[in-house]
Amino acid sequence: MSSEEKKEEKIRQKPGKILYNNAVMLGRVARYIPVYPFFMVLEGLIWGAMNSFATYFTVRLFDLLDRPDVTFSEFAATIGVMAASYTAAYLFDAWYWEYFNSLLHQKLQYHMQKEMYEKARSVDLACYDDPAFYNDYVFAMDQARDRAWQVSEGVGKIINRLVASGTILTLLTAINPYIALILAANSLISILMNGYFNKVWYKKSLEQRPMHRKNSYINRTYHLADSAKELRTSDVGRNLNGMYGDTVEELVATDIKYGKKLLPASLLWDFVSWAVSFGVLFFAVLLLNGGSVALGGFAASISVMWQLNWLLTDLIERFQKLPEQSLYIEKYLAFLAYEPKIRGKEKIPEAFECLELENVTFSYPFGEKKEVLSHVTMRVERGERIAFVGYNGAGKTTLTKLIMRFYDPDEGVIRYNGVDIREYDLEAYRAQIGAVFQDFKIFAATVAENVMNGPFAEEDRSTVLSALAAATFTEELEKLPKGIDTPLTKEFDDEGVNLSGGEAQKIAIARVFAGGYRFLIMDEPSASLDPLAEYRLNHGILGRAAGDGRTVLFISHRLSTTRMADRIYMFSEGKVVESGSHEELMAQNGDYARMFRLQASKYREQGREEAFV
């Protein structure tokens, strides 16, 4: 089966699946907003009845005009009932759409987004390496609320159209069954045409989704402060502009590709619609000439015919939206139904005593299948200071991801306190480890909230201050206008502070001290600092950790701190090629010794010997 055939197979849906997906989405809306189904049905019934009343009032007024003995009071009563009915309906309509519906929108968005945010926290980190999953993930996050609302409103409109068209069709069949037959045939053609249109539009949306995501990335790059300096000091903007131009060309080519499919069908549909309209008019004229209706009845019949044609057409379009909605809902439901492969069990870990890695081998699940780690074995005891060193791409950071259980090894086992980490409850296990990631993030929140990595209460103040002191942020804190209550970034607050890279790293480091973790992982925790500041910070961190009896596993390209480690592991091409204390590795005169001497000589040339003392 070709890729195009596979896409076609995915798009084709059975009626039962279409109804199921839409019903599930309606069920979710009802679960989040229990009152909504009642008002949705009520609104549909009210306006379905009003459309029917419009037909009744039209016929009633023309009947009165045909009567020679009609009185003014009869006209006034009919118009008064009509005015009162429409006034009540429009008052309800204004309250429902302008006030009540707006509140429901916000409530629905809150519940649906919250559910997806929680799900996003549970999906495997490997999912972000899978472009297909990531595309669907972004798609679900962007589309879910609007699609839920469109399904709900669509059902309300379907009820409206069914009530109104049922009443009018009964009346019209009594006048002339041929006109009713023409309109029914038109509805059947509408079903077929809309089904074709929806399928083509969905395929087009599916094909253009990666292009829109690329353009979204370019747009985000231009308006985020993180990229401002590079855009002004390099030709990266030219590259992005070229990428944008190429993507627009791809979008245009896709529009043309699907436009060629839609244009003939659209022209055919327009021709059929006009043919039906003139056919209805033709039969109406025959009715008039045949004398079966008077002029007033003829005018009323024409109004009824046009109204019914519009109602049936809109009703069919609403029904035809269900398959389209189902295709989008399928992505949303698939995202929510995703079951993480990295799953824990029920065992709760005790305080850290030791970590063992035995014959650990790993390759990333997507992209080129290449061993990133190969047969790594080591043991870390409580209170030890362990250093991972090596050049870029040696597998150091990947190993910390396995220890955090973001991934599971392909071979081998990792044990925490002698137990395979897969036996532990996942959240409880990760809660034992404080990690500072190489690509850490500072959030648009206060200093205190960033340090606490969550909500901050006044009783946490001493914890935050102590953690910042441990991360050597005391001097920087004194310069902040509101101390630990200072908002970081200017994303939502004009008085927010943008920290330097080194200052931000210290905030990230303070998090692990505020968390009270007994086992710390620090992946290049001070890479944004100058060598001397890094040396002082790392010595402070390791000294504080040693004083508290914490275990520290740190990664560094700079070797100024490694001599404080109890044991150093030298990585090369995913393997541990050397291990031992600083003195032992220097005596071996291997890769570590050469790297250390090379860095030391550069620092001596720069007059920064203190960083290697």
- CATH class of the domain at 12-337, named Mainly Alpha
- Give the strand content: 5-15%
Could you tell me the CATH topology label of the domain at 12-337: ABC transporter transmembrane region fold
**SSE order:** HHHHHHHHHEEEHEEHEHHHHEHEEEHH
* The CATH homology group name of the domain at 12-337: ABC transporter type 1, transmembrane domain
Number of helices: 18
Helix content: 55-70%
Q: Summarize the biggest pleated sheet.
A: 6 strands, mixed
Termini distance?
66 Å
* CATH second-level architecture of the domain at 12-337: Up-down Bundle
Main attributes?
18 helices; alpha/beta; Rossmann fold; 613 residues; disordered N terminus; 64% helix; six-stranded mixed beta sheet; 10 strands; ABC transporter transmembrane region fold; 10% strand; four-stranded antiparallel beta sheet
What does this structure look like?
The relative contact order is 0.08. 64% of the residues lie in helices and 10% in strands. The strands form two sheets. A six-stranded mixed β-sheet has the order 6-7-8-3-9-10, sandwiched between helices. Strands 2-1-4-5 form a four-stranded antiparallel β-sheet, with helices on one face. Helix 3 (36-66) packs antiparallel against helix 9 (295-337). The protein has helices spanning 3-11, 15-32, 36-66, 72-122, 131-175, 177-223, 228-233, 236-289, 295-337, 396-403, 426-430, 447-452, 461-470, 474-479, 501-514, 531-548, 582-588, 591-605, and strands at residues 354-363, 371-381, 385-390, 411-416, 419-420, 433-436, 519-523, 551-555, 567-572, 575-580. Among the domains are: 12-337, ABC transporter type 1, transmembrane domain (ABC transporter transmembrane region fold); 441-516, Rossmann fold. The protein contains 18 helices and ten strands. With 613 residues, it is α/β, with parallel strands linked by helices. Strand 4 (411-416) and strand 5 (419-420) form a beta hairpin.
